[in-house]
Each structure stands twice: as structure tokens, then as C-alpha cells.
Amino acid sequence: SVVVAPLANDDDPVGLGLTIVSVGQPGHGAVIITSGAQTVTYTPDPAYSGVDWFTYIAQDGNGSQNEAVVAVIVGGQGQTGEAPQIGLVDNQNGSTLPFTDHGFQNVIQLPAGSYTGTMGPKDIFFLVYTVIMTPTGDVNQPPHALRFGNIVFDLSAFFNYNLLPGYRFPTPITLDLTYDPALLGGLSEATLELFYWDGAAWSSDG
User: Fold this and answer.
1) Last residue of a domain, which of 49, 74, 99?
2) Exposed, middle or buried, 107 (CB in 10 Å: 0-12/13-18/19+)?
């Protein structure tokens, strides 16, 4: 189970505080409102991994209510022991999303308009960062017989609760890696290259 705070990024123009008055049930688990009506507890089904979602209704101090959606990423039991990290994208203004890993930090900068589809006021576009995973599921097979520099991660794009497989951003995004040189295991920094899995092979283009 995990405690989720849906109200953390909700606006409260009245200034009297928000409360959660009801929740919808997800397709792959259960949600209950916790004491104080500020958070909820989500419990996934035992064998489920992937994206789940549920709705909730928030109420302000004047009694006005609004519904919103929460997306939850459920990691597989045998992956890494690390919880996936989620970064919400401000599609109108762009976003800078920091993700942390063992011994390094990855900061991803996305320009405005990174999602090209239609977004309503309750829609969300977000990235999920998973530590030490590749789309092949095998970190022992690096690209072109090169060596991994011990900086391996999966970055996936989601719209609401839907994975966008192989999503291509309309304009380039920037990845800034800050790392401890000891992670390289003797590799020269001058030899470092950034590759991604395009669904069929490792690529450094695009």
C-alpha cells in the first residue's frame, strides 16, 4: 500500500482548505480515504504491475466540488526494489524534472508543447523514470558491444493513465546527468555516449 496526497498540487483560491469527499475505485486495486480527508491509501492487486488510475472529488471551504484523476505506477516485484519516479509536465510552459538514482542525478528539461495532442483541464502528461531498467529487460547487453557506464534507466511517457510506447517529442528535450566519476568503473569520460532503445535496437540518433 502507498499513501497518496492528491490535494498537494490542487489550487485553493478560497483559501479555506480542501478535503477529499469521495474516491472512485481503480481497475487494479483499492483506494480508501484516510483520516483527515487529506490523503488516500492505494493498495494494488497482488499480482498487478503497470499503470492504474482512480478519480477523486475535492471540496473547498465553500462547498464547491471538482473531480480529478490520479495515475499510479505499480512496479513489478522483481525489477529493482526501487519505486518508479513520476514527473508531471507543464505542457503550456515547459518543465524541469529532477530524478535521482544511485550516485547520480538526471535533470530533464522539456520545452512547452512537449505533448502534441489535445489536453483538457483535467488531463495530465507525465514521465515515469525507473532505475536500472532498459526496455530490453537485460542490462547485460549494451549497444554495439560497448560497456554500460553504470547509468541505466527507463524513461516512459504517459497521457493520463495510458502509456505512450515509443513516444517521440516534437522538439528535443535536454538530459543533464550529474554523477560521481567512480560510477564509471575506470571508463574515460571522453568515451561516454548516450543511447536509447528505439524498440528494435540501441540508437544514438533522434
Assistant:
1) 74
2) middle
CA 133 to mean position of chain CA atoms: 14
The pTM (predicted TM-score) of the whole model is 0.67
Q: How many domains does the chain have?
A: 2
Residue with cell 489535445: 118
- End-to-end CA gap in the chain: 38
Which CATH number belongs to the domain containing residue 56 in this structure? Answer: 2.60.40
Q: What is the pLDDT of residues 65-74, one digit of tens each?
A: 999 988 887 8
Sheet strands side by side (includes 2-4): 2-4, 40-44, 29-33
For 161, residues 6+ apart whose C-beta sits below 8 A from its C-beta are 51, 52, 53, 69, 71
How does DSSP assign 34-52, residue by residue? PTTSS-EEEEE-TT--EEE
